[in-house]
Design a protein that fits this description.
The chain is 45% helix and 18% strand. The chain is an alpha/beta fold. It has two domains: 146 residues, 2-Layer Sandwich (Nucleotidyltransferase, domain 5); 182 residues, Nucleotidyltransferase, domain 5. Strands 3-2-1-4-5 form a five-stranded mixed sheet, with helices on both faces. Strands 8-7-6-9-10 form a five-stranded mixed sheet, with helices on both faces. Helix 5 packs across helix 14.
Length: 356
């Protein structure tokens, strides 16, 4: 039983894989989810995409329903039977507590009668993919943002940020989108010269979808009928495109947001505390890192915040494949080389599947 009064250490809490059989892995977020069933050598036996499993976005009950529906399709449309799955590893946004873990674990167990199933934060798949289960820092900046540092050899798992949009999400699509809307309001009041950004925001499909024609329409569109984190994040590409093109107002927004995120990454590097001469692998996940200006700004900000050597890169494998690595590596006897080979095979097969 995990101590519900203390932060969960998802490295030490993950149960071992003690029996042979198929593996089931979930990568769930705020906008969609992906489920796969595979053999331990990485051969794919089933794959499906579905609705989100982020309880903060859709509620705990609906998150469980969505996971169950997607898993069911993965089984029905694939070549595996749920009873043949021995181990299930669910990674999902909004899993921070034992209760949240159990909610999604139960949803999967109902269709996997012989499996050990455990749900963890979506950061775990990202972390595992960064350095193939070896010590690393993972930085996720998609719709939201969070940083995690982990080392299985010493039982270290530590999260930085990940407090959702009211308290955190710095450097994320949401934060950039919110900044774009705020800057547009400032332009409307004559307090900002970011006219290129304002013009693009007001002319965007996202603005049209909420009936925004003038700056005065923005506050009601944001707050009524409810705050939609994903919709606000849909303005982020405007900021990033202008920033990549050299727009100074957009670039200032990017630098301001990633500076806070880089601080979290630096804290992760310090927590990992790798020996001198060993660069810390830093995995970069999420659509914002596709921007050349944001990536450059992040690298500069991180270098300014830590004296330790690091190597920041977008990992070869996805968080979904990282989740598979965690499931496979949950058996103590599995060698690191075998995990790497199986992950490569799975990634190759997933690349042929739409939505993977």
């Amino acid at each position: 039983m995990v101590d519900s009064e203390a932060p969960v250490n998802w490295i030490t809490a993950t149960p071992p894989r003690t029996s042979d059989g198929l593996l089931m892995v979930v990568d769930g977020g705020a906008t969609h989810s992906r489920v796969l069933i595979a053999e331990t050598d990485g051969s794919l036996r089933g794959f499906a995409t579905g609705q989100p499993t982020n309880a903060r976005s859709v509620g705990a009950r609906q998150a469980a329903v969505n996971l169950g529906d997607t898993l069911r399709r993965c089984i029905v449309e694939g070549t595996a039977d749920g009873s043949d799955v021995a181990y299930g590893y669910v990674t999902s946004a909004a899993v921070d507590t034992e209760a949240q873990s159990e909610n999604l674990s139960d949803a999967a167990r109902s269709q996997l009668p012989n499996a050990t199933v455990f749900a963890v934060p979506d950061t775990m798949g990202c972390w595992a993919a960064t350095n193939r289960l070896e010590p690393a820092v993972a930085v996720i900046a998609g719709t939201g943002s969070v940083v995690v540092a982990a080392d299985r050899s010493v039982g270290l798992w530590q999260r930085f940020g990940g407090w959702d949009f009211l308290l955190g999400d710095e450097g994320s699509g949401f934060a950039l989108g919110r900044a774009a809307l705020r800057e547009t309001l400032l332009v409307g009041e004559g307090r900002s010269g970011a006219t290129a950004l304002s013009t693009e925001v007001l002319a965007s499909d996202a603005a049209a979808a909420r009936g925004i024609e003038r700056t005065e329409d923005i506050p009601d569109a944001v707050h009524t009928p409810a705050i939609d984190k994903a919709w606000i994040a849909s303005f982020a590409p405007i900021v990033l495109q202008l920033s990549d093109a050299g727009d100074q107002h957009a670039l200032a927004i990017v630098r301001r947001e990633v500076d806070i995120l880089a601080g979290a990454a630096a804290a992760g590097i310090e927590a990992l505390d790798l020996p001198n001469g060993t660069p810390t692998p830093v995995g970069l996940f999420g659509g914002t890192f596709h921007s050349t200006s944001l990536r450059s700004a992040f690298d500069d900000a991180l270098s300014a915040r830590t004296d330790r050597e690091f190597v920041a890169s977008v990992p070869v494998h996805s968080a979904l494949v990282g989740g598979f690595m965690m499931a496979l590596g949950a058996a103590p006897s599995v060698r690191t080389h075998d995990v790497a080979v199986a992950a490569d095979r799975l990634a190759a097969e997933l690349s042929k599947r739409p939505g993977s």
